[in-house]
Design a protein that fits this description.
The complex is a heterodimer of chains A (538) and B (135).
Chain A (H helix, E strand, L loop, with lengths): L1 H7 L36 H6 L7 E3 L6 E10 L6 E10 L6 E4 L18 H8 L10 H8 L5 H5 L18 E2 L5 E2 L10 E8 L13 H5 L3 E3 L2 E3 L1 E9 L5 E3 L10 E3 L2 E15 L5 E14 L4 E12 L21 E2 L20 E3 L14 E3 L6 E10 L4 H13 L6 E3 L12 E10 L12 E16 L4 E16 L8 E14 L28
Parallel strand pairs in A: 10-14, 13-15, 21-23, 22-24
Antiparallel strand pairs in A: 1-2, 2-3, 5-6, 7-15, 8-9, 10-11, 12-13, 13-14, 16-20, 17-18, 19-24, 20-21, 22-23
Chain B lengths: L8 H31 L4 H31 L2 H23 L3 E3 H29 L1
The chains are: A mainly beta (538), B mainly alpha (135).
């Protein structure tokens, strides 16, 4: 049939144009005359008479040939009207190393690209079908042989952002570069907590040969740290089934490598979570990886892998810092309690949940219905929130006052606030006590009975200052005052009800004094004559 | 030619000059092949035959010249005949380098033309010498 005959015909790219008389570099517009292009065949004699010069005066082949034809174009401005002169001359290269002849046809021309045919399509697709034509950078591993191995005292201490070194190159955290495809060349930086997701192209047939799908790829090289090498242990393995259900495996010491089973590729790595433990001097002492393994079906051509790395200091509970050392705007204000035994200097109780919080407004706006919805106080963000309290005649004052106090202050209102974003619980002096003030809205009336006061608003004022160098000032909390404003609850006649707004607010005030740059004292010239300078006379 | 001496003096001179010229020719051609491989596109599967031909010619030249000297000086026709046979091989290789090399530079043409003419003249003189020795 016709299509097989077509397929059998050899397809080739158009032959290179070598006739210099027909070659024209400045002929860019099709069927139109290009300005000042003397070799353009679309130009007529009238067009040539309007040209000022020839943009392409000579068209030749390779100048290294000994003897070749050259087409010379010029404008004869003397004639009226100006006309184009076309000459075909023999150009001679006088050099003794000119090419007299060549038996290699492609020597002087650009290589014609291979035209895809049904026969060579698969081969061309394999070679050129990827995002880039270069193979995976295996030179990654070869580079470290050329480098001098790092000195022991250099690897012992890592600094923030320095790539974590392993036996071969760096600890890899595959991440998307430009496109969403995974690049294995992203090193993990020390103390830089990262989480990345990227897409990797897979095929079920070659799944046991794709390195990045196997657990070994992520744990086989050990991390260089001080004198020892820290092996990456497998912390846990979670197996994800095709429908997304995850199961934690009980034994995580068996290495599960990808293999093909019934048109599926099982034990393929879908996610890795590195946990690196370090000391406070920057030495890595432990490394663990938690894997999520999954199955790839035959139809899937790509899977999404997610990677995460987190750094924890040894012997500490990971407490998220709100700044280092000064508070960062937008991070929660850290607070804590003084455990029993004050004034003996004891550590503060501060955990992830001990934050300064205020009431969070809800859609119902009913104070008594809004149970426990609180928002953390973020440094630098002034907040105001509130709710409406419906008072009926039947309500008793004392319980109501207590309930409102709970609504305003929350279940565990902290006693101390961290002065710096990274204040450690052990450093007692880095914590600022919360001053509690009580303002009564109304003066005590002249009635004899003590009126019942209910709190109607809580205002937290946080005074902070800029601390440290002029160039890089750090925010430091100096004073925290919590003011409760109370008002008298007037007894309502039965059947009536009243709605009172309850508000709580947080205000951050900058009390930093204007910075005064201080300069070094001018050096003084210290001239003192020796004691016995005028010896014979004094 | 003196009646007592059958050895050909012109042949001797020519063989001597040929030896010196060949050393220059070999080095120059090798240098030019290296130059061509750097400046032009010279794939390995075309570079190998050119280098092989050059080295083969160099290997042939040594016995060829030796046999020529020996044959001429000892007035023996056998070595001279063998040398003539080797000359035929050298001529073929020289023609290859002149016409069928990957890149034939103008300097290549000059060098090979001179060598070919030397071979031609030498062959003529050798035939004359053999005829003189045989008779």
């Amino acid at each position: 049939p016709a299509d097989t005959r077509d397929a059998a015909r050899v397809r080739s790219a158009p032959a290179p144009l070598t006739d210099v008389a027909r070659l024209c570099v400045c002929d860019l517009l099709v069927a139109q005359c290009d300005v000042n292009c003397c070799c353009d065949p679309d130009c007529s004699a009238e067009d040539f008479s309007l040209f000022t010069s020839c943009s392409v005066p000579v068209v030749t082949g390779d100048s290294q040939l000994c003897n070749q034809k050259a087409a010379v174009y010029s404008l004869d401005v003397e004639a009226n009207p100006p006309e184009r002169i076309f000459k075909l001359i023999d150009q001679v290269n006088p050099s003794i190393f000119c090419i007299h002849a060549t038996n290699y046809k492609q020597a002087l021309y650009l290589k014609s690209p291979e035209i895809p045919t049904p026969e060579n399509f698969d081969r061309l697709l394999e070679k050129f079908g990827g995002a880039s034509f270069r193979a995976e950078p295996d030179s990654w591993d070869l580079d470290t042989d050329a480098q001098n191995p790092p000195e022991a005292n250099e690897t012992s201490r890592y600094e923030y952002g320095v790539p974590v070194q392993t036996e071969d190159a760096f600890l890899r955290l595959p991440s998307p570069v430009v496109t969403s495809w995974c690049s294995d060349a992203n090193p993990a930086g020390f103390l830089v907590n990262q989480a990345t997701k990227c897409i990797r192209s897979v095929s079920v047939e070659k799944c046991d040969s794709i390195q990045a799908l196997s657990m070994l790829f992520y744990i086989n090289s050990s991390i260089l740290a001080s004198v020892f090498q820290v092996d990456i242990t497998v912390q846990s393995i979670v197996v994800q089934s095709l429908d997304g259900m995850r199961t934690l495996l009980s034994s995580s010491d068996v290495l599960r490598l990808p293999m093909v089973l019934d048109d599926l590729c099982i034990n393929a790595v879908l996610g890795v979570n590195y946990h690196i433990t370090h000391t406070d001097t920057g030495e890595i002492i432990e490394a663990a990886a938690a894997f999520v393994l999954g199955a790839i079906s035959k139809e899937e051509l790509s899977i999404e892998q997610s990677f995460e790395i987190s750094f924890t200091q040894a012997n500490t509970q990971p407490v998220p810092l709100s700044g280092n050392p000064g508070y960062v705007v937008g991070l929660p204000v850290r607070a804590g309690f003084q455990p029993q035994g004050y004034p003996s200097p004891a550590a503060f109780l501060s955990n992830k949940h001990s934050q300064l919080t205020i009431l969070q407004s809800t859609s119902t706006q009913d104070c008594l219905a809004a149970q426990g919805a609180r928002a953390p106080v973020l440094f630098g963000y002034n907040m105001i929130s509130g709710c409406k309290l419906r008072i009926t005649a039947a309500m008793k004052c004392q319980p109501l006052a207590q309930t409102l106090l709970d609504v305003l202050k929350g279940q565990s209102f902290p006693e101390y606030v961290a002065s710096f974003g990274n204040s450690q619980a052990q450093d007692v002096l880095d914590w600022v006590p919360i001053t509690q003030l009580h303002i009564s809205e109304q003066m005590v009336s002249h009635t004899l009975q003590s009126p019942c006061q209910i709190p109607v608003s809580l205002g937290i004022e946080v005074k902070w200052t800029k601390y440290g160098s002029l160039v890089n000032p750090q925010a430091r909390i100096v004073n925290v005052t919590a003011t409760i404003t109370t008002t008298t609850l007037k007894q309502l006649p039965s059947g009536r009800e009243r709605i009172i707004p309850i508000t709580s607010s947080v205000v951050f005030t900058d009390i930093s004094s204007p910075a005064e740059p201080s300069y070094k004292a001018w050096p003084t010239i210290n001239i003192k004559l020796p004691f016995d300078f005028f010896y014979p006379f004094v | 030619n003196n009646s007592s001496q059958l050895s050909s003096l012109p042949l001797q001179i020519l063989l001597y000059i040929n030896g010196i010229y060949y050393i220059f020719y070999f080095l120059a051609t090798l240098a030019m092949i290296i130059y061509k491989s750097q400046v032009f596109s010279y794939p390995d599967d075309l570079l190998a035959p050119d280098l092989a031909v050059l080295f083969l010619m160099g290997i042939l030249e040594v016995p060829r010249l030796y046999l020529g000297f020996k044959g001429n000086l000892t007035e023996a026709e056998a070595p001279l005949g063998l040398s003539l046979g080797l000359t035929v091989g050298s001529v073929v290789l020289c023609v290859y380098l002149l016409l069928w090399q990957t890149y034939v530079l103008w300097a290549d043409v000059l060098l090979n033309a001179v060598l070919l003419s030397t071979y031609g003249l030498e062959s003529g003189l050798k035939i004359t010498a053999i005829a003189a020795f045989v008779s």
